[in-house]
Each structure stands twice: as structure tokens, then as C-alpha cells.
Amino acid sequence: MFPCLCQLCFYLLSAIAVAVLLVVALVLYKTKPYPNIKRHKDEETFLDPRSIKTVAFPSLEESPSLELSVIVPAYNEELRLPAMLDECLAFLEQKSAGNPSFTYEVIVVSDGSQDATVSVALRYSKKHGAEKVRVLELIENRGKGGAVRMGVLSARGRHLLFADADGATKFPDYDKLEEALKQLAPEWQEDGIAIGSRAHLENDAIATRSFFRTILMHGFHFLVWLFAVRSIRDTQCGFKLFTRSTARKLFTSLHVERWAFDVELLFLAERLKVPMSEVAVRWTEIDGSKLTPFWSWLQMGTDLGMIWLRYLVGAWRIAAIQKKEN
Known about the structure:
The protein is an alpha/beta fold. It has a single domain (about 40-320), classed as Spore Coat Polysaccharide Biosynthesis Protein SpsA, Chain A. Helix content is about 45%, strand content about 15%. It has helices at about 1-30, 80-100, 115-130, 145-155, 175-185, 200-210, 210-225, 245-250, 260-270, 295-310, 320-325, and strands spanning about 45-50, 55, 65-75, 105-110, 135, 155-165, 195, 240-245, 275-280. The chain has a seven-stranded mixed beta sheet with strand order 5-4-3-6-8-7-9, sandwiched between helices. Helix 7 (about 210-225) runs parallel beside helix 10 (about 295-310). The longest helix has 29 residues, at about 1-30. The termini are far apart.
């Protein structure tokens, strides 16, 4: 009886080992080591609504020409976008008035929106001028990570902030991120990330969420810690500030274009030993989220496992390391 049981266990373990090897082989075969960043010709320009002319976007590889670029990814956000832009631009205008050396731009990236998101954003561009507000209209939906990347690649700032279109984070908390980033990286040529965080609000969130959503939240946080990011408690807050140097390294290496892209960004930052600071921000949940609690979190959990596996077996590689070696 015992020899038969041992033999059965041996066959079972052998089958598992073969299955794992087949999965690894399939991942290696199907996966390209570096991201293939495609950009349609129409996505290389923006409309200046005052002159009714199209103008070419600059490149992230160029030297910066202003202080801050704010990237706002937006998918069907015609209803929530105005409140966010009102608060954002009022704050930036006030900051610029008090400090003439502070210059900025806001890039709204419409991620294949089917509603009036582009029209809404263009009204702000016409009001404030295309030097301050630009609209990047993506031909097709790429996902939030893909939209943020396209905006980053088109930015002129020494520092780059991406902020969610729902306005859940109070925009004046930018000052806290700016101060934290200056402590990490006084110059834009240095590396650093200041990460807006809602970790201090976790107890309040648990009190107002259902038991099921609380379990999902803790499960996701555990998977992030297990597979990817150990040093940051809140990886998903849509309020992160990068130096231009860091943005160049991370966004040219990013593979994931949907919800879990934040995790891969911070995973890459840890691998590249980029200095990071987690900064508590004010945050309010806004109605109209595109996330569905179960399926979106299941997709993100799957993405986390694949991020870990693909980097572990070498199917994905970090473009910034390859560039440095060459």
C-alpha cells in the first residue's frame, strides 16, 4: 500500500513539474521581452482649438521646457472630468501667479472615449490655451496604463504627475508630493517618485465597505506584497509624481496597460532601486468608477501573477537596464 502511495505521489509531482515547465515554455514563446509601443499617426499631434491647427507633440526624450506636466487619463469621463479640471487648473493658476518660474501643462488623454470627453477637454484647452491644456485623443482604447504612458511620452515637464480624472484626490495635495520628491531628487535628471497614498484611510474604508469588498481589498494587497511590491502600502492611488529621468526609465519599460500598471511601475522602480516616498493624501470616493469589484480585481490578480512569472523566467526584461548596458 505504502509503495503504491509513494508511486502515485511521484507521478503527481512529475505531472505538476511538467505542467509548470510547459507554462514557462509557453510564456517564453508567446511573450516579447520588451514592450512594443505603437503610436498611430493621428496620436502624434494635438488640436489647438484657438488656431484650429494641429501641432506635433514633443518627445519625452527631449529636454524639459516647463516645470510640471499633469497627465489625466480619461475614458468616457464627460461627467466627472469638469470638476477635476476646475480644481486642478485653479490650483495650478494660483501657484503660477505666486511663483512665475512655476510653469505647467495639463494633458488630457482620451482613451478611445465614446462620449463627449474630447469635446469637454477641448473647451478647457480653448479657454486656457494649448500651451497649458492639451488633448491627446487615442484612436482605440488601450487601458489606463496605456493612456498614462502616451501622455507621459508627450510631456514637457521636469516633473510628471498623473492624476485620475474623477478628482478623488484633492489636487492641492500636489504640494506635499512636490516637497517629498525634492527631498529624494533635487534635480529632474535624478531619480525619484512621490506616491500619493490612502493607506492612512484604510480603517475608515473597512468601516464603510461590505465584508466581501473588504476581503477582496485585503486579498489584493496580499497578492501585491507577495508577487510584486514590498515597500509601498498603497500602489493603486492615482496620484503619482515622477522626475523626468524616472519617467523615461519606467514608462519605456512598462508592459501592462490596464489596471495593474501601477503595480508593474512600482515593481520596476524597486528593481531599479529608484528612491520612493509614500505621501498621505486626502481622498474621497467618487461615483462612476469603471472598476467592478470582483471581475476587475480578478483581472488585476491575474496580471500580478503574470508580472511576477514573466520577470522571474526572463520573458519580460527591463528596457532601462538593456539601454544602460548598451
